[in-house]
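Bug: token stream looks shifted between consecutive jobs. Job 1:
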Amino acid sequence: MRRYAAKYLELIKQPSSPDCYNETKKMIMNEFEIEADNEYEKRRFKLKSIGNQWYEIYDQENDSLGQIKIDDQNHEHCETKGCTLDMPILNSIRKNILLYKIFGED
């Protein structure tokens, strides 16, 4: 939490700009981007934490592709709702969310 507070203070000291606004919004909304792949392709996704370990998955055009829940007790397990993605991509997304939670966005 301190990391976010420090970054927020750093951003609000800068002159107003769209980048400053977008970075602040991402921090407040807990949004982040990842790259996920299967054996055929790499894709970028935007993720938004929606609470209780659930994340909304968006493509680069901001279209929702479904939701994924990360199980903190069993990192090999996850639940999905309304996902239109195949299992290899979902597994890659799951792994990248776990990495994000461990290492953060910095």
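Job 2, same session, no restart:
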Amino acid sequence: MMVMLSGKTEKPMFLFQEFKLLTDSEIIGDRKKVKVAVRPEDFILDSNGGEFRVVTQLPTGPAQILNLENGVNEATMVSPDYIKVKPGETIRIGVKDETYNIFDLETERGSFKGLC
């Protein structure tokens, strides 16, 4: 399962809400609107990341599944560690280095590996 996040590019950054992912300018080219695909296990807590509201949280033993939203994007985060948070509270999340793919929003084709 991949989480798709819509945003825009401002070389060499991909921006969506408060997320900023550094990418190789040659990968983005002239694309202005892109989607970024992120696996739920590749989201991490990041004090400089995007702010998301916790919709639901499900402990699964030592791990935890969080369903998140921020008004524009929805995401599912799978954390190997328990995060002490309740539905309705907000957390800041980022993406692990080099663990996402960029897609052209208009054609929805072409997977361009992001670089952090």
